[in-house]
Amino acid sequence: MKITKRRLLEGGAAAVAASLFAPGSWAQRAGTAAAGGDSAWPTKPVRILVGFPAGASPDLAARAIAEPLSKILRQPVTVENKPGASGNLVADQVAKATDDHTIGALINGNLTIAKLLNPKLSFDPEKDFAPVGMIGTAPLVLVVSGNAPGKTSAEQLLWVRNLGSGGKYGTPGVGTVGHLGMELIKSRAAITAQHKPYTGNPQVIAGLLANEIQLALLPPGLAMPHIKSGKIKAIGVTSPERSPLASELPTIRDADVRGADLEIWTALAAPAGMKPAAIARLNAALVEVLGSPEVSQALLKTGWQAQPGSPDALAKRMRADTTRLGGVIIMKGIHSEA
């Protein structure tokens, strides 16, 4: 049997996912957590830790739900920002919390591939967290520089292919979703552009405008103003269907890029040792909050589409992302010190 890069990608990813969801894993614990409720919890204020600065998109998501949660739980719900290491510093603190009232608004990288990227991390996403529920999701937008020829997504994608290894794509850093997502797209779309890491997405956009790079994956909130002004062009969003966050854009599937669906997300997670009854009550409150039109609209304005769901649904999403991006990490030998 011929071993292709795609077979390596899928096979390696499947092995990663199988190990993460063995008996006693997230999904099993999440099912236990959802089985009961305890109206006595919480007995004191609840802390939501965020691993990014105030005003960053995960912070905005956490603040959109904090006050409505406090009304349902009848206890103050506070948001504390502790930036560092792409959220992994906060993830470590949440994993080690023992007070039953400290949780984290964590991004997908913290809850899926963190240990694969950096085996030196002191927390293990498989063992140290209990899923509570998704807060919101967002696609990324595959964009090209404004001088790319062609009017359609397919024509712009062909231009990128024809650049060969002389083309460059930009990301906000090694091991970020933008980096792994681009490598996934490259494997599915016959693109050979080379990676140029920057320190953040604003710098990626500056690189596109200066034609230092020709391709990137960007959050809709950052990409859309430049797309509307014509300074950069959009091939499409990476979600399976069109997104309300960028409703005028097609999907990359429409440009015949298959098997590269990808979204960023923020979710609530608790320490693995938190009482199952507390997890169940917190999830029920979160689902109620996210079902509110006011909260849904507030999230939409900050770049998130509300995604209420069960702990088990979040665990399944972790599995899917670990399968998809873990395979990229294995195939490309990507490592990060963050």
UniProtKB/TrEMBL annotation:
It comes from the Bacteria. Residues 1-27 form the signal peptide. The keyword Signal applies. Keywords: Receptor, Signal. It holds the Pfam family TctC. Belongs to the UPF0065 (bug) family. This is Tripartite tricarboxylate transporter family receptor. The lineage of its organism: Bacteria, Pseudomonadati, Pseudomonadota, Betaproteobacteria, Burkholderiales.
